[in-house]
Amino acid sequence: MPDRFQITIERSLFRASDSPFAVLQGTCQDGHLKTLCGDLSSFGHGDRIEVTANASEHPRFGQRWKVEEATILEPDDRPSRKAFLESIDGIGPGRADQLLDLFGEDVFARIDEAPERVFSELPGVGKKTSGKAAKSWRERRQIREVLGLLQAAGIESSQALAGRASRTFGDRTMEILEDNPFALIELHGIGFRDADRLASHLGLFPGSPQRVKAGCLHILREAKAAEGHMFLTADQLDTRAADLLDLPREQLHLEAVLS
Hints:
The structure is a single chain. Helices cover 48% and strands 20% of the residues. With 259 residues, it is an alpha+beta fold. It has a 5-stranded mixed β-barrel with strand order 1-2-3-5-4. The protein has 3 domains: 3-73, CATH 2.40.50.140; 78-142, 5' to 3' exonuclease, C-terminal subdomain (DNA polymerase, domain 1), CATH 1.10.150; 209-258.
């Protein structure tokens, strides 16, 4: 049976360049150091996460925990907030302490409001460093937000997908996904079902033109993969779309949606 525990990431031991696989090390609530491996590329130094994992023994590196599921947690005490702040480019332990002394529990909210201004107010931090820190802050916070959204929608492998989405869509990732959850399909290996889970979580109307269009494109791509072409009669597309989307044919309005 897998164990479930919380851990604060402190070191990245390995990150694959061609997959979301990573090996991370951190400290659990009981003070024990543990090494995690799995699709963990979205996590980094300072992240506090809850994992479901199985202990395994590596012949060279010793005990590791193979992660089945990982959920991001918001830092809720000074040590975890400090660990996250230290992970920001240009902000080390000393500056992290200064920020916590200045803003206490509100430190993340204050930085979110105006990161450049907050960082530039620290002693010895110039425009270049504050700009670098602000960019790093936005990137880290965005991945956390995207990860939280995908996990709330019940999408598997959210921890790997969050980083890929952020790299693909840039600093507008949350805006893009909330406006059109089916943009997820642009990511290699992500199918209609996962995007549809996100759409449902965001409250998108089941018969919305966005959903119908995305479903039809999915059907045509599947036809190409299975049959070698993307040609379907209107009646065939109508039938398959009604089945995929679980909607009556009269609610599809394919001509209007696809025109």
